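#help-structures
NK: newbie question, is this the right format to request a structure? protein is Receptor activity-modifying protein 3
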Amino acid sequence: VNGLMTLGFAGARQRTDLCNESLMLEKLPACGKSFEEMMKKVDSKKWCNLTEFIMYYDNFTQCTEREANNASCFWPNPLAEGFITGIHKQFFSNCTSEKVHWEDPPDEILITLILIPVMLTCAMITLVVWCSKRSDIL
């Protein structure tokens, strides 16, 4: 019973802790600095390829989460998200997805692709009608 009460009181105390935003904002730059040092190991031309630095980014994410939790703040929160967005702008602002420009095929190919199913449909309809009129033979 004492153990359950202790857990209950600890949970109640934890819920009443207020987020120390100033402490969190004081500690988050250390995460950014560490990430920046790790990213120096990666060629800047490869910054858009997540597989090149996924471990560094994971460490950065865990660091920001840990510092937010140490300051009794939930994660993510608007302040942490703002900090993370700043890091993204610093390192990944040139990473844009290339949009595929779709074009129609040449007219000869397009006409062929349209006419083949139309002709097959007409042929199948003709075959069905012809077979239904000749049901006495089948």
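mod (FA): yep, format's fine, and the tokens are attached above. Residues 105-137 form one domain.
NK: thank you!
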